[in-house]
Design goal:
Layout lengths: L6 H35 L2 H37 L3 H23 L5 H8 L7 H13 L1 H16 L3 H25 L5 H13 L3 H6 L15 H32 L2 H37 L3 H28 L1 H7 L5 H14 L3 H16 L3 H14 L1 H15 L3 H27 L16 E6 L3 H4 L2 H9 L5 H21 L7 E7 L3 E8 L19 H9 L2 E7 L2 E9 H9 L1
Antiparallel strand pairs: 1-2, 2-3, 3-5, 4-5
Helix pairs in contact: 1-2, 1-7, 1-11, 2-3, 2-5, 2-6, 2-10, 2-11, 3-6, 3-10, 4-5, 5-8, 6-7, 6-8, 7-8, 10-11, 10-16, 10-17, 11-12, 11-14, 11-15, 12-15, 13-14, 14-18, 15-16, 15-18, 16-18, 17-18, 20-21, 21-22
């Protein structure tokens, strides 16, 4: 029998993986280098001020980040269901709403001083610098909102490379402005926030290329339809930022009061080590959001399972290599962030190495947050997010520090172990909850076996193998539908497969064929990575073309729909069961 293979999913993962990794590298390098510049040019105290004020940078990301991720996932799902108008509505609602929310958040700039006093926990030494960082952050919110939305939608709308170009451009401009503002002006730590908005604002010119792209399927309209779905799907992203804000704020205050000022600098380095890992890991995991939404919308469970397997495999391979490097160069990593005091460097080495224990659990939890968000299991995403950032982590850190104080042990090392314990406990609780509530579907919450009414197979770009497709379909349809309509469906599948092989070009490597029999209709879907070809726009002309197979398919089927999603040709043929009965009776 012909069986489904992973060729198309694996090739698509690699096609999206490189732009996704580059996008995340640009984002995280911007954050990491920004911290390095502040630490080396202005000193450790200024770095602490940027870290504390960075809580507000998280707050202003919420509209663009939540609606960018949630909206793009829902747009991908709709494209997978061949609903281009619905996908465009989600895009429009997400962009417009994020801009409106950004303008509203600008008004909070007037309350920068009391907000900064709260963030520092009454520790006045850092309040002035934190106030400047907070004020500038609020004022740039609309620019950041527009940028974050466009990054996600360009990627899901057949233009992942443009998304990468935007992020790389914005962060290069950010770092150039960062160095100039910190080195040659008296703006102080607030220059790190201002440079971010300069980069994101100027780089929006890349959106012009997206608007002119021939691959673009989404259009902008004055509509808020689909906002609810985008919001619900984006709640885990919003929760992750809110919980990260709470975690950072509580951790900053806890460290300041229980351990001391210098420990904040080490905690800042720990967070930046996560960003270093995110240079690669974030791009790998976020490929799930780019590809998984469309695959899930098509109900391609085999593809979704394969995608998950490869993402986890690549993530842990990269993490293993990064961990070895960071363990070997821990002291150098701390010094890179401007920590020059010998005693502080000595304290940072064991603390940072203990913190690395948290990373395997972090990757596991990070993947499943993205996975459940993509597959519309937002309850699980929300659960993991709350546990990972607040519900388990903060109590674990507090308990470990208190125990260390009582036993006279190193409190900073205890805090790092508490963070590692928080990740492990989060993963354990998540696995227990999901398995209890989805006993048959497992952690991925999708059917483990192919439904008996679904035929799923792959065909190599070879005419001989394509000729086997009708035999497979006729055998599958036996006892499900009558032989005459089954033969017609088999002919339609063969004709479409042969057409893809004939005109698919050098890029064609495989064709996925899925046949689904429902109570009302028979659905035949073909997906290939050949050159774009839309059979619904084809006009038969026997004088010039030999596409007679498509004309035959049109006469057999009731509806033919086509979309170019994930840079695949996706053609769906639908035949009503009533018509099949009529054919059989005739």
């Amino acid at each position: 029998m012909l069986k489904r293979n992973e060729k198309l999913i694996k090739s698509k993962l690699w096609q999206y993986l490189i732009p996704s990794i580059m996008t995340n590298m640009a984002l995280q390098i911007g954050n990491v280098v920004d911290t390095i510049l502040v630490g080396n040019i202005l000193g450790a105290k200024a770095m602490s001020a940027v870290q504390i004020g960075g809580t507000i940078m998280l707050l202003i990301q919420i509209p663009g980040y939540m609606l960018g991720i949630g909206g793009s996932i829902m747009a991908g799902n709709r494209l997978g269901k061949r609903d281009v108008k619905g996908a465009s509505n989600v895009f429009s609602a997400s962009l417009l709403t994020s801009l409106i929310a950004g303008i509203i958040l600008m008004a909070l700039a007037f309350f920068s001083a009391p907000i900064s006093a709260f963030l520092t926990g009454g520790q006045g030494a850092l309040t002035k610098d934190v106030t400047d960082v907070v004020r500038v952050s609020f004022l740039g919110t609309p620019i950041l909102s527009a940028g974050l939305v466009m990054i996600n939608f360009m990627a899901v709308d057949n233009n992942p490379s443009l998304s990468t170009v935007y992020v790389v451009t914005s962060n290069v401009l950010n770092l150039l402005a960062d160095y100039f503002l910190l080195k040659y002006t008296k703006i102080g730590p607030a220059g790190s926030s201002l440079s971010t908005f300069i980069g994101y604002g100027v780089a929006l010119i890349v959106v012009i290329l997206y608007v002119r792209s021939s691959k673009r399927m989404l259009s902008l309209r004055i509509s808020f339809e689909g906002l609810k779905d985008a919001f619900i799907t984006g709640v885990p992203a919003m929760l992750s930022i809110v919980c990260e804000m709470i975690r950072n704020s509580v951790m900053n205050i806890m460290i300041l009061r229980l351990i001391g000022d210098d420990a904040v600098a080490i905690y800042t380095i720990c967070l930046n080590l996560v960003m270093v890992c995110e240079l690669f890991l974030g791009g790998i995991i976020e490929a799930m959001n780019m590809i998984g939404g469309v695959v899930y919308g098509e109900k391609d469970y085999f593809g979704l399972r394969s995608l998950s397997k490869y993402i986890l495999r690549y993530s842990y391979t990269v993490l293993f290599v990064l961990t070895i490097i960071l363990v070997a160069f821990t002291r150098q990593s701390a010094a890179m962030f401007g920590v020059t005091d010998a005693s502080l460097l000595d304290a940072s080495v064991p603390a940072l190495r203990l913190f690395l224990i948290a990373l395997p659990g972090y990757v596991f939890n990070r993947f499943f947050i993205a996975y459940y968000q993509t597959t519309e299991k937002t309850v699980y995403s929300n659960l993991i997010t709350i546990l990972q950032f607040c519900g388990v982590l903060l109590p674990a850190v507090f308990a470990f520090v208190k125990i260390a104080i009582a036993l006279g042990l190193n409190t900073l090392n205890a805090a790092m172990l508490g963070m590692a314990a928080g990740e492990v406990f989060t993963a354990i609780i998540m696995v227990i909850v999901v398995n209890i509530t989805n006993k048959r579907a497992g952690l991925l919450c999708i059917p483990k076996d192919v439904n008996e009414d679904v035929l799923d197979m792959s065909v190599s770009p070879d005419a001989k193998e394509a000729s086997r497709v009708p035999r497979e379909i006729i055998a599958f349809c036996k006892d499900k539908i009558d032989s005459t309509p089954a033969t017609q469906i088999a002919i339609a599948a063969e004709e479409m497969a042969v057409n893809a092989i004939t005109y698919g070009g050098n890029s064609l490597s495989s064709i996925d064929v899925m046949l689904c029999i429902t109570d009302d209709s028979v659905l035949l879907r073909l997906r290939d990575n050949g050159i774009p070809f839309d059979p619904t726009n084809y006009e038969y002309d026997d004088k010039n073309y030999e596409y007679s197979g498509i004309e035959l398919v049109r006469r057999i089927t009731n509806r033919i729909t086509y979309l170019r999603t994930l840079d695949f040709n996706n053609t769906t043929l639908e035949i009503d069961r009533e018509n099949l009965k009529a054919e059989a009776q005739a």
